[in-house]
Amino acid sequence: MNRQRKWLVSLLAVVMLAGLLAGCGGKKNDGNGGGNAGGSQTSANSGGTGDGSGDSLEPITFTFYGADASPNWQNMQDAVGRAITAATGVTLDAEFEVGDPAQKIALIAASGDYPHLISPKGDLGKLVEAGAMLDLTDLIEQHAPNIKKLFGDQIKRLRYSEEDPSIYVIPTYAEVGQTYFDAGGGFQLQHRVVKELGYPSIRTVKDFENAIREYLKKHPTDENGNPNIGLSLNADDWRMYISVTNPAFFTTGGPDDGEYHIDIDTYEVTYHFRRPIEKEYFRWLNHMNAEGLLDKESFVQKYDQYLAKIASGRVLGLIDQRWDFQDGENALKAEGKFEYGYGHYPVTLTEEFKETSFWPVGFSPGWGVGITVDCPDPVRAIKFLDFLASEEGQLLDNWGIEGEHYVYDENGKRVIPDEITERKKNDPTGFQRESGIGLYHNLGAHYGDGVLDSTGNYYTTNFPEQIVATYNEVEKETLAAYGATTWKDLFPSEDEFPVKPWGAAWNIQIPADSELNVLQERMKEITWRRIPEAILAPPEDFDRIWDEYQQELLKAGVEKMEDEYEKLVKARVKLWNE
């Protein structure tokens, strides 16, 4: 952002805030529900601070854009949404992305017409450069005690950069104090597959391959004569990262730093596809294709087709994250086909590598929700976000409504009734649409799994006893056969890896005017063309295609891209340790 534009945006924010604090008249919301912007009116049941102070609960509607899809969104007419509105007076007129969020954010930034609240994920820089975002620093200090309490001394990590220490988003994708108790990634195999084969070791890609091959020999088709599918990949748009390219570093000892591999000691950055060992992972996928074990439609199918295949029960194996494929699996559970569900296995290229899903990053903010300069009432907006960060707000998001979705026993322990647990297990999609539990998770700042609230109970329902309670009997049977209680038991734990001082590099914001944006897009275009080509080629052509791919990267400036990203990594380490 040029200095003049940034100065004007800052001045606008100061003027708006000064007017609000002085109580200079109520600002209407242009027909979207109205709202009192004055800071002088208070209510015993506050507008979202959770501490008994704040504006009135006069209804107000904010527009919102989220870069992630939310297929179960019910316009806040679910149980949790209604409770949030009752506590804050706020409803959201929300749009959630179903296509390419980078393109949509670019259009929003260029239009000059911004939603009141926005969650841009990795494209915040475009909005900052356009002058779209308010600096939230003073709003947090004056109106957001729950946000301040939650982040504590980590709030300095919310700063945008060393040159621009503004806070533009409240981190909502990063949990404070997170302890992971379960695994949702790795490689997935249907429970029926491992059971019929006597629960073999699923430790390497060869183990995974052999299980698929042996089961297909016995069961080439389903009960209706439709061919079973060995392994299906999801390569539809950005999901290419999740299902096709990210596993190359997970299986070869590299942590998740987006498209880069970063040396833990020197911070030297390498475009991770240039690691020689990753070539061997893609060679294995090429082999799977040649053996007829890879879904031939992997690189042409759309996301809904991928989910439909999973829901049919015909896909034996996946390489994905649960949040990406769970709608398909949930359809199977709703039909009672639990044996067609998936277990999670820490598969690597060979046994010399550790699967890196749980490599610790510490508190690593970057992606979250911000308030734009078009918001008619920034104070009400920050109070809304502050309510979501309050204990009450987090319990609504994680547990639901007291007496309806959870109760307290005689010892003060928060418990989920059996009938609710059964619904969550057997019809998770329907239950979420009705209850709203989890739909607001990436809208508000929150504590992670394992953190206790003021009553001594966990903030989240993801703790060992409750996780096990949500497993169906088929899952429990599979886990028991492998000597595990939860899926995470099978994976290398956090203490086997050093904490990365830069956090998660994939959420480092890149300045909108940086050449790095152009270079990254160029490398992505090359990689997304060459990787499928290499996987689908005859095996005798794989080395040639891979060598051509590497040379094309060099000609396109991959080394310059690595150098520029290395500067950002080092800048983050410096910023966080000032």
Percent of sequence in beta strands: 5-15%
Low-confidence stretches: 1-54
Taking the alpha carbons of the first and last residues, their distance comes to 24 Å
Helix content: 40-55%
Record the strand order, biggest sheet: 2-1-3-11-4
Quickly give the structural class: alpha/beta
Radius of gyration: 24 Å
Looking at the structure, the CATH topology of the largest domain is: D-Maltodextrin-Binding Protein, domain 2
Number of discrete domains: 2
Number of strands: 13
CATH class of the largest domain: Alpha Beta
Average of the residue pLDDT scores: 90
- Globular, elongated, flat, extended or rod-shaped: what is the shape? globular
Pfam family, one: SBP_bac_8
Organism: Thermobacillus composti (strain DSM 18247 / JCM 13945 / KWC4)
Keywords: Signal, Sugar transport, Transport
Protein name: ABC-type sugar transport system, periplasmic component
